[in-house]
Amino acid sequence: MIFEHEIPKGSRLYFGKLARAKRVLENSVCEILENNGFEEILTPNFSYSQHQSIENDKKLIKFSDEENEQVSLRADSTLDVVRIITKRLGRTTKHRKWFYVQPIFSYPSKEDYQIGCEWIEHTNISDIINLTAEILKSLKIEPILQISNINIPRLVSLELNIDIEIFKKGEISELLKLNCDWLNTLLRVKDIKSLENTIKVVPNSLKKELEKLLTKAKEVNYSNIIIAPLYYGILKYYDDIYFRVIDKNLVLCKGGMYSTDGLSSLGFALYTDNLLKMLEG
C-alpha cells in the first residue's frame, strides 16, 4: 500500500534549513558563473537525444510522444544545451558560455540536482578546471580534484591488446597480472612529479597524450590534485582530458572536453545533493 503522503524512492524533498542551504549554494555558484561571463539556460525536461549522452540507456526513463517518437526524461544536460544553443537558438545568440541549475532523472525514479556549465567552442580545459577550483575555494572546501585523459587507457588497450572493459570496470588486479614494468609505473602515477618520471619509460604511442595531461595539470591552480591517467569514466561524450571532484565516497563534480556535431567544447556539472552533504559535514 502506498500512502498519500509518500514520495517515490529516489525523488528529492527539500524543506526548512536544507531548502535554504540548497538555495544559498545555488545562488553563490551562479554568481561566480555570471561573474565569469556565463548566462543561464533552462532546458526542457524531455529530450529526443538522451541516449547519445548516457553509456547505459537502460537508466533512461523513456516513453513515446504523440507521433510515437521515443522521448526520455533528461538524464544529462550537456549535449542538449549545446544543440539547443547552436541549432535552435543559433540565429538569436552568439553567446558561447552557458550555465544551468536543474535536475536530471534516471530509471526507475531517481532525481538529482545539478549546477552545470558549458563553454561551447572552447578547448582549453585548464580554464574550466580552474573555474571549478574557484567555486570550491569560495565554498571553503578542498576535496580531491582528479584529472585524467580518456585517450590514455584507450591507447594502453591497443598497445597491450587488452579489452578496454578492464579500464571501464577499474580492474586493476587484471592489469597487474600482465607484469608489464611501464604499465605498473603508470598505475602508480598520482601527481605531477610521478607523471613526469613515467613519461620517460612508456611506449612512444602514449607520450603525446601523457604530455598533454601533464601540461594541463600544471596550469591548474589547486592544491589537492590527483592525476589518474588510467581512469575511464562512464559518460559517452568525453573524448580528451576530463576531471572529477571527490570526497570520500561522494562524487561532487564531473567535467571535461567533448565534441558534438563537429564542435569541440567543455563543461562541468556540480552535484548539488552531494555538495550539500559535504557542506553539512
TrEMBL record:
**What Gene Ontology molecular function terms does this protein carry?**
glycosyltransferase activity; histidine-tRNA ligase activity
User: Which keywords annotate this record?
Assistant: Glycosyltransferase, Transferase
Q: Does the keyword Ligase apply?
A: no
Q: Which GO terms describe its cellular component?
A: cytoplasm
Q: Specify the superkingdom.
A: Bacteria
Gene Ontology terms describing biological process: histidyl-tRNA aminoacylation
Q: Does the keyword RNA-binding feature in the UniProt annotation?
A: no
Q: Which NCBIfam families match?
A: PRK12293.1
Name assigned to this protein? ATP phosphoribosyltransferase regulatory subunit
Query: Source species, please?
Result: Aliarcobacter vitoriensis
Tell me the gene name: hisZ
